[in-house]
Amino acid sequence: MRSRYAAFVMHDAAYLRRTWSLTTRPATIDFTPGQKWTGLEIVSTTGGSPFHSEGTVEFHAHYTRNGNPGTQSETSTFTREAGEWVYVEAL
Length: 91
Fold this sequence. Notes:
The protein has two helices and four strands. The chain has a single domain, classed as Nuclear Transport Factor 2, Chain: A (Roll). Helices cover 16% and strands 51% of the residues. By secondary structure, the chain is an alpha+beta fold. It has a four-stranded antiparallel sheet with strand order 1-2-3-4. The chain has helices spanning 2-10, 13-18; strands at residues 35-47, 54-65, 68-81, 84-90. The two termini are 15 Å apart.
């Protein structure tokens, strides 16, 4: 989760595509103009150990958009594909 957040901060679409499930990956990844990510809080997690094949991460990602603060809160689901953790979707 932290590496995907950093990829959003850096506008690294290639990394986001590599870490997005083949079943839900969008054709393109767009970044919101005027939005700057300012912090990430991990609220809770489930699964995600070497013994799991699925997991979730609840988080709050803080940003400013055109000078106005905001927060994106969600619970993201992850799964293993070819042995690697990938993002599936937000619940």
